[in-house]
UniProtKB/TrEMBL annotation:
This is Bifunctional inhibitor/plant lipid transfer protein/seed storage helical domain-containing protein. Keywords: Lipid-binding, Signal, Transport. It comes from Amborella trichopoda. The keyword Signal applies. Residues 1-25 form the signal peptide.
Length: 92
């Protein structure tokens, strides 16, 4: 069953706009907005997406502990995006 594109887009916008605070302010899931089409439409990640994933690498365990993000990041598609970007899959 395909999910309507607008629903997926709206879900992603809500997801990234909520942000995820950290003690040092460095973790901001909204910076991963360029990865939306890769996570939700199984498109290859863009160079910008890969760059942002690398920048946010230290935040993955924090994101994985948050139920709003864990299902997306820990999905088979999420892991394939990390591999495509040559970002190590976190072990938390």
């Amino acid at each position: 069953m395909k999910i309507p594109y607008f629903s997926v887009l709206l879900s992603f916008v809500l997801l990234v706009s909520s942000g995820l605070p950290s003690a040092n302010g460095a973790c901001d899931i909204s910076t991963l907005t360029p990865c939306g089409s890769a996570f939700y439409n199984s498109q290859p990640p863009t160079p910008t997406c890969c760059s942002r994933l690398l920048d946010q690498q230290s935040c993955y365990c924090q994101y994985l502990k948050d139920p709003r993000y864990s299902g997306i990041i820990n999905s088979p598609n999420g892991k394939s995006i990390l591999r495509a970007c040559k970002v190590p899959i976190p072990r938390c």
